[in-house]
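Shapes recur. One chain:

:::
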Amino acid sequence: MKKIFHIIITVAVLALFIGCDDFLDVNTSKDSPTSVTVDQALPPAIFYASQQVYDHAEYAVYLAQALTTAGKSQTSTYAYSSGWEFLSMNRHPQWRRHFYDLGANIEELKKAAEKIDSKNFILIARTIMLQSTMFTTDVFGDMPRSKVYLDTSPAYDSQEDIYDWMFQEADELVELYANPEWAANKANIRITKKMDRIYEGNLKKWELYTKALRARLWLRKLPNWENTPEVCNKIIGMVDEVLNDPAWQEPRFNYTGGTSEQNAPWGPYAPIINAWESRGNRLATSIPTKFFAYGVLGAYDNNNSENARKYALDPRVEKLMTMRDIADKKGSTRLRWLESNIGMDVSMRVTNYPDLYGSGDNPYTLNDGYIALITDEELMFIKAEAQYWAGDKAGAYNTAKNATIHNMKRLGIVESELVGNALKRYNVFFEVRFPGESLFTIADLMQQKYVAMYLQPELWNDMRRYNYSSKTNGITYDNVPVYTITTCHNGKGTGIGKPENFSAEYSLRRPYNLYVPYWMQEDAFGQNAELSPNAWINRLNYDPETEDKYNKKELERLGAYKNAEWLKKRMIWQYNNSGKAVASDPTEWK
């Protein structure tokens, strides 16, 4: 990994978002900086912290099989949405975002803050770095941390050591935010809105976000790693401490709209950050999967209703995607989907499928929308999951239901404002998806979190935490396959259906057209290739543009160098240490 000169990046992004306060301006020319000051370094760090959420979500929405594309090639520039052939991709934005855009600039920010003893900048910088480290290790595993900027080819820390550091760092940060010698330090320079577009330097709010990050961190203990009542209760307490604090405010980076990076990354403008190292969103050319549209959202088999013109059990579907017309025998507008990577029929066009920018009610897909570093719903679902595994299924039921209602409100669906068929459909949804405390399962909980985490990084993290559990791979938790879903087989007449009509099943399965050399195995005679039993992707390969060139020895030591088997290796939080998972294949956990 080569250490780059990062002040150039700082100033380039800075120019897009802020004007310089001049109280610390020591540069002779603002176009040719000779040093970086805290007021210059913080804005790009916060901007990239937001962009990082998108980077991970952009992969996650395909790897968790919510979206697919019209093609069916085994190889492409976007391996995460085609055949999982990752080794030929020349870079991953997540890797560079952490080590260069964030890590290198935050190192400079901390140095500048230490020089003037402005501890408030250091606290925010460390919080952002904690977020970034967690995102990065959760998709790559082992990676440089303790010696990252000491050498051009730094040694990799194990994921176990990285998690030990993150647990310790989270606790220490919470203590420091509460320490007046840090939070109320007389040398602290006031942080303005120009520097901090999320919390305007309010350290209490940054403290609560740090506590929220700690709750997400501890959730990795569930359901496999350390699933005990003590851990579950600790997680519940962490979430309550955040959500019950009147100072809590969801951390949002708001975009103004306009040109380039002024637009939200999931919006129709689809900005590409720093051009060569990032990717714009591809919602304009993507298609909802059968798993997401038919299974999770509960799309009706019968779409011929003209009564309410509704398309699925879940009323959020029209907020997330807008159905478009196509000439068929009824002339109707229909919700259409594809199996993952199966490819589009030659008679169809992408415009025959839903517009994934939605109705204008989804705040993430607007040019002037926002990125949330963590959402209220995510915290509520974290609590619900901990309640479930602690044995409080009634509490989990109510918390998950409230989280789902909260997510609906984010999209503009409010029960008190609904009438007629819209209200009936809303009620039927809750009758089907929340059938009662005694019937509530971990599958019901995680499927609703799946909808709430659409276009969020946790979408894929959750699916991997539950090891893609479904009837197709034979892995169950609490005796249920988590991603096997009861869906609707009849919306005839009202476009709403009745609870008793929701009896069809759909299970998560591996995508079609996976890259044969990596993901298929042949029998003893070299014939009848089948997907290997562990052919789920569990991690990304290290960024070839840097690591293959400058850190090859470390990759070889790990067994990761140009090795597709590395992609199948589980994260430390996926192994069945708690014994909560049951697999039909006895070799599954090897």
